[in-house]
Design goal:
281 residues; alpha/beta; Rossmann fold; 7-stranded mixed beta sheet; 13 helices
């Protein structure tokens, strides 16, 4: 697979894109094999559904997946590793006033949070530690949930622009959620409309990139990832799909001129989860 990819790049990007049936590329993600897309569309259109969408089982199973116990681990990580983010937590907690997520009191922070929001805060700390200030970065996120990571980065480090690529139905929900906070310089792109290459300073993905089949991953590599000098992705294993292995993806990044590092996810949200990070070589 890696050899095929590199040969295709050497010939032309077009040859790779036509090597796959593009009508199938956008039907291979794990979340697309559930009721998740239809529910996201419904939540974007119905205010009553939107008011509690973050505790609905269709959304919880895909996005709001963390237990209270894992939330405690993320709260501990924030306090110990990124205490400079603590003053932002009150503002960030406003995120959990929208969509009705299940919240718990985290005494170390003195605030009520959805555990998933705490993961977003910890990742914001990871990104700042790894890449420095993001305030002048153009960021692309592959798979955005409802836009929670974007909201947290807006509240902490800031950014020049933020683009989220996701399912068509999910982008409708992301737009509705983020419009609540009047965040500027953001856009969403439905993955079925990803026809032009996108250059950015940083690409991130919390699980989503590893939850799609190899053909769609290669499409993202051509259109998005090869044009980003930096990246941060949590890579997990989802049995219903057949993605590139972590080592295959790392090898492709290296061949594209990236300096790659792989770490165990910490706190660990899945037995086989890793973080893959890249910088310019």
């Amino acid at each position: 697979m890696i050899v095929l990819f590199i040969l295709a790049i050497a010939c032309s990007q077009t040859s790779l894109l036509h090597a796959y049936n593009e009508s199938l590329i956008y039907r291979t993600g794990a979340s697309q094999k559930t009721n998740y897309p239809a529910f996201c569309k419904l939540a974007s259109e119905d205010n009553a559904v939107f008011s509690t969408f973050r505790k609905n089982i269709n959304f919880v199973d895909v996005v709001e997946t963390l237990s209270y116990e894992l939330g405690l681990e993320f709260a501990k990580a924030i306090v110990q590793r990124y205490p400079h983010l603590l003053p932002y937590c009150s503002k960030i907690s406003q995120e959990d006033s929208v969509g009705g997520p299940i919240q718990r009191l985290f005494s170390s922070l003195g605030l009520w949070f959805s555990p998933t929001t705490l993961r977003y805060i910890k990742i914001a700390g990871d990104l700042e530690k790894e890449f420095g200030s993001l305030k002048n970065f153009n960021i692309v996120e592959i798979g955005g949930g409802c836009g929670g990571q974007c909201k947290v980065l807006h509240d902490t480090t800031g950014f020049a622009s933020y683009t989220i690529i996701d399912l068509p139905e999910t982008t409708l929900l992301i737009n509705k959620f983020l419009s609540t906070f009047n965040i500027q310089n953001i856009q969403t792109i439905a993955n079925s409309q990803l026809t032009n290459s996108i250059s950015s300073d940083l690409v991130i993905s919390n699980y989503a990139f590893s939850e799609i089949d190899t053909p769609e991953q290669l499409y993202y590599i051509v259109k998005v990832i090869q044009h980003a000098p930096r990246g941060y992705m949590i890579y997990n294993l989802m049995p219903p799909v057949n993605p590139l292995s972590l080592n295959e993806f790392a090898a492709i990044l290296s061949l594209l001129g990236k300096k790659v590092r792989i770490e165990r996810e910490n706190p660990l949200t899945g037995d086989h989860n890793y973080v893959i990070i890249w910088h310019p070589a």
